[in-house]
Amino acid sequence: MSPKVKPKRPWKEVAKEAQEHRDSTINTLSPPAPQLPTELPRNVLPIATELLHPKVIFITNLPPEQLLPLLSTGQVSAVEVTTAYLQRAALAQGLVNCVTELLPTQALTRAKELDAYFQNHGRPIGPLHGLPISVKEHIGFEGLRCTTGYIAHYDNIAKDDAHILQILRKAGAVFHCRTTIPQTMMHLETDSNLYGVTNNPYDSNFSSGGSSGGEGALLALRGSCLGIGSDVGGSIRNPAANCGVYGFKPTAFRVPTDGWGYIMAGADTVVSVLGPMSTSLSGLKLFMKTVVDSQPWLTEPALVPFPWREYQLPQDRPLRIGVLWDDQIVRPHPPVTRALKTVADVLQMQGIEVVNFKPYLHDEAWAIIASLYFTDGGEADAEAINSSGEPWRPLSEWIITQNSCVKKLDVGELTYWLEEREAYRKEYALHWNELGVDAVLCPVNPGVAPIHNTAKYWSYTSQWNLLDYPGVAFPVTKVNKSMDQWDREQSPLSEHDAYHRKLWHPEEANGLPVSLQLVGRRFEDEKVLAILEHITEQIKLPFDQFP
């Protein structure tokens, strides 16, 4: 449809319908969701304990690895757990605007089936028996809308469940809600004209991140303990970091790709991946192991056919961790550098070898990946926005119309950038070999959660998407306004650095989560999670209490 053609319906009418539908799914809850105070504080994290029943709080505060044993032994029923999570997810929606719809009818019907199965067989149906899982909106549910953040896509109805949902449901999962995403899916922010802006639970002035920002915010508020996000440039790790939860971007083609919006089957310029977000590190492994153990490649042949492997730490030498202090383009904000230094120092005290990991042409990496994100010059995204008459969101404009790397590529130009990608991957492999590290510890973002619409630097996460390296974001500490001040003698590394330096306001950001990222080489998914498990146990991460 041409931008000049009048849309079928005014975009505001579509948005109103979307929000009314979401509210209607919340209004059907029994018991009803608690009434919110008229005025909300900027930090909404304490409100749940004030408004919800103690039993609901007890159930929803448990991480998945503690909740599942209760479910699998019948100490709590699937209906009890699902009801509790529906309540808390509804509350989270009212606090930060993170849900596109609750699924109470589907979820409770499934929970009853699972309880009946347990009653009849005396055992759980699978490894995720009764566990509620939240789902990012662009992942297809049969019969439900799949907008990928566009008003124009509001009437797109999924014909089937995505492959990932089929696997998790068979393992016993209960899907209780769907979460917000941004226009274009290409923001490190979650805002759309369909549902508005998703705020950070720690402070409404700050971003929950994107594009899986609905998942990040919901998990931080314990409206879920395990959720599905997606990542093509940081979209799992960024919101996990902003919201103080855990998020894992796996190597491409280990987790199913069938049945969800955004990429076409077989697209390989920059592959978007699905991955887990959780309130615990164990939740990430639980998700990955369950999915890979189901042998999804038997029905989706694009996937890599090898099982989940238990990684053994080296016995004849210490672990060797590289620390990427900065990428020589944008210097991390003071709390991120403090977290890196603290973790590095404590690791050394535990006998782990820590070495400096120098960046290798990270500016070139951005030029390559940014040229491969929109090989049609952004035409499809522009058409999707303009055809409905909805306005462009600020970060949609920034990534598509203000990004000098976005150009329509002919066959020769596309070939050139694909060759550049492969050459860079080989050079980086040799660089990693030279430094000989088991994993790299690095920032997730230049700073902690930023003010809304200012997240314009992806390279601490997109770097690893270009290389197709697995990475996990994890909480470490919180901003301390008295400790986290700039060294005034440091001069900016670049124009990008000068921009981000101005974004740091320790007084405003005090108390926000500070997270880091651990990265491994391609197909070292098990190794990355195992090393982080070991590190977490050895040095007692996180250093601060998180809700």
UniProtKB/TrEMBL annotation:
Basic and acidic residues compositional bias, start-end: 10-24
InterPro entries attached to this UniProt entry: Amidase_CS, Amidase_dom, AS_sf
Region spans: Disordered: 1-38
Reactions it catalyzes: a monocarboxylic acid amide + H2O = a monocarboxylate + NH4(+)
PROSITE patterns associated with the record: AMIDASES
Binding locations of substrate: 185, 211, 232-235
Keywords recorded for this protein, A-Z: Hydrolase
Pfam family, one: Amidase
E.C. code: 3.5.1.4
Keyword Kinase: no
A single GO molecular function term of this UniProt record: amidase activity
Residue numbers annotated as active site: 136 (charge relay system), 211 (charge relay system), 235 (acyl-ester intermediate)
Family from the record: Belongs to the amidase family.
Name by which UniProt lists this protein: amidase
Organism for this UniProt entry: Paraphaeosphaeria minitans
